[in-house]
Here is the input.
Amino acid sequence: MAKPHELKTIAIERNKSKEILKKSYYNYLSYNDKYTLDGNSYKGHHIIEDLGINVCPYCNRNFIYNINQTRSNYQLDHFYPKKKYPFLCISFYNLIPSCITCNGLTGKSDTDVKVNPYDDTFPFEKIYFELIILKPDFYYNIDSFDIKLNLSLLTDIQKHRFQTNIEAFNLEKHYQKHKEYVLKIIQKNLTYSDSYIENLYKEFEGTIFNNEREMKELITDSTIKYFHLRPLSKLTHDIAKELGLLD
Ligand SMILES: [Zn+2]
Here is the structure.
């Protein structure tokens, strides 16, 4: 039961012994009955409920949830692949509930994805989406801007590590498919002028909004509180912030 950043060390040390694997497996089952095997499959619905997430932690693009006790729309990804690190196939922290697109990507099992989305030692807050404006008509033409993940606040080692996630999950390519959505945020920025926002705040202060931040979060439909609950919430937040719709 190691933390995400400790998993690889453990894998290297213990991968060698099948006996250790067997013993640990049975210890694991007796340690926490909630995550035991049910027939041949994990009771994944407990994991996602305990994590309290509704969105794939790899891509932040797709909803993941339990439909009922036996059906769900996600899979449990083994962050360190079972083939290469059999010892870790039983670790709770090695199981990442993820959307079928991310878990099913061809070649992922052969690629070492370096950053576990639950690694609290990694500075995810330093990664952000940015708008690359190519032509002046970007506010009504999706071909006139691009969306990129900016890693410039990371160290070189951190950049290299996160780049493996971007490549394995095709993040930048997938996000190009959300340019229509980003266009709406750009157009919202034009529609909600400073004076319009000021008047809205004056009208609803103390009733709908307690402060300007709450009002801007309602306008942009964005808050960092939703990152694990709503698809595209990280993209929405970062682009709205870049445009000045959020502080
Ligand atoms: Zn995903």
